[in-house]
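The following block was generated as part of the benchmark described in Methods. Ligand: zinc ion.
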Amino acid sequence: MRMMKHIHVTGVVQGVGFRPFVYGLATRLDLHGWVCNTSAGVDIVIHGDDDRVRTFVESLSTEAPPLARIEQVSAWDEPGEEYPDFEIKESEKVDGAFQPVSPDVALCADCERELFDPNDRRYLYPFINCTNCGPRFTIIMDLPYDRPATTMADFPMCDQCRKEYEDPTDRRFHAQPVACPDCGPFVQFWESAEHPSSITRIDLRLSAILGARKLLREGRVAAIKGLGGFHLACDATNEKAVAELRRRKGRAGKPFAVMFADLNTVNQFCILGKDEMTLLNGYEKPIVLLNRRTGTKIAPSVAPQMDTLGVMLPYTPLHHLLVNQSDPILRREPAPPVLVMTSGNFSEEPIATENQDALERLGPLADAFLLHNRDIHIRCDDSVVRVDHRQNGRNNEGQQPEIIHLRRSRAYAPYPVSLPFDSVPSLAVGGELKNTFCLTRDRYAFLSHHIGDMENAEVYESFEQGVEHLNRLFRVKPELIAHDMHPGYFTTQYAERITDIPRVPVQHHHAHIAACMTDNGLTDRKVIGLSFDGTGYGTDGKIWGGEVLLASYADFERFAHLEYLPLPGGDSAIRHPWRIAVGYAHALGIEIDDLPFLQNIDKQAIKIVRQQVEKRLNAPLTSSMGRLFDAVASLIGIRSDVTYEAQAAIELEALSKPFLLTANVHSYSIEETQNGINIRLGDLLNAVVQDVRKNRPAGMIGARFHKTIVEMSIDICERARRRSNLNEVALSGGVWQNLILLNLVRDGLENEGFEVYFHKQVPTNDGGLALGQAAIANYQIKNGGLHVP
Ligand SMILES: [Zn+2]
Ligand SMILES: [Zn+2]
């Protein structure tokens, strides 16, 4: 029997080698017809032996190329004229239709082989790519994804490249960024003097690479243009170089990411599990947090006080050329096998993407520039992840590692997250720190790349550009806008300026829980939400952050929270945990004058903090879990001041790890009131202070504190279950980046029979907030509960 079918495939199916795959599959099965890209997906007409047609339809999903993400394959019978062969037809444009865009993809193994093959015409060519790898999101200006709509439009293909581009059996068939040394972009090495105006162009192409390798070896700092922006690089084993980079960048303590030449080198410096290797080596190549080995040659300034290291492998051909240790030509200038690769910016500004901008802004930071002339259309930072070992334990062999996203950007954005219900075209603007925004249409939520901290004017500009670009790309004209309730957020003010569509303010911790629910595909229901983070605006105008909610997409009830304590000096206390410690202790009547951490702090400053607390002057009340960790870290003497958010808490976690097994739990008190449960902190902080007096090791005190918070969290969930009959718990908020807390709470809750949900696709920190805002606003507008201000 012969049959003829029309097939429509949706998902990420363009720019990922899907049509050549379809062509190959049809040819192999001896089927005739055609395949065509439309702006709504891929259309196929196929006819031939019916068994083979069935195999064909099945294989579309099961054998799809690695970068394709198949959402749906719909096939229907379509009798008609038969075709003499199988062909790939020209793209069709459907108005208003859209398509998920592939993120940027790390260099594939085939291209890497060619890159280092002296007989290949792209030998050592820094822009080699194919349908399975290379830039996508960062060079796309519009859809459908075709070369003229990318920043490769400036580079007409040479005859040889065009032949590959047009040959359906070639790996470069319709690879839009295809290029070679004859026709493609090239690198330049600019050696700068003190000032950018005196930068002189010294060399082109291969010698540019060699020049950069030499400069790095000599302990100097290079600005290197990457996929989604510039990096600042230096030898990660050269303390002088790294310390100098820190000084110039204005970045005191926050760890730098490093790039290793290869897995073997990583293994010498860090502890590498199977999942970590899979992740480092995959096509996403994010920065992966690894546990460090002790006594390695990594310069102390790379990641001070950290037991982890943010590690990545080279993901562009240019990176490979910089760190490669074996190619005979490159070895003429030996290069360090480990480089600091930190974002090319000053302090909290956005990373530079344009050459001229980089020369100006990074001029004072870099000794030289490795530039190229392929434009970056949209900025995209490196993603940061860690392996979620606990979820992997339950996985089958051979599955992709489950990961915890700390920053979801390059190689992940803008893959959509599936919504558990239909949406209207909408925009959720996200939070203030670690901002991402989210666009929805149909069942897609397009969570943006990492934007950054909005109080910086350039970051805000980058936010506006990003919103505009993604609206255009995904054909979204928002009919609904969601934002945080905080009146002072720049994102809130942005939303308030849009007056012609309904606007939905969403409470911060409610948004976190909804983000976790959406992330896990939960449909309409109520869960117990443990929303633990640093700061979020509460419905009572106070600063929330240690919240137990009974929450659904529709609304939430505040079931329990940490007791309110004063934050002396408000937000500025975040940088000075000692002030939080002194303020909390003073408010709770705990005597701490004899504790060692106070001995180095100005007596007058302590007095002012205590007065602020007594007179309630500039000491807003907070129930923040993050601040509780800061206070405890300070009481223990780990750190009185921090240079980045959560630094003290991160160090507390690292110190506590070795003591977990032997640490016991402090008592704590829970007060049931008319307005819900108030978790009192006096007993707990008193116990911490006693431990300090007894000279217990900091790690032991930290471990006991962690375990008490764990026990308390489980206790509260049981009370919530008794009250509400709910058995599902969602964990969200930045505090859950603390793996001790995360893992012990998950274990404990599951032992008590709870179903526990944690993030898989988006960050638990404020980088995932916009997804929750979008879900809540859309749910409310669908179900008539929308109250428009
Ligand atoms: Zn490739
Ligand atoms: Zn060419």
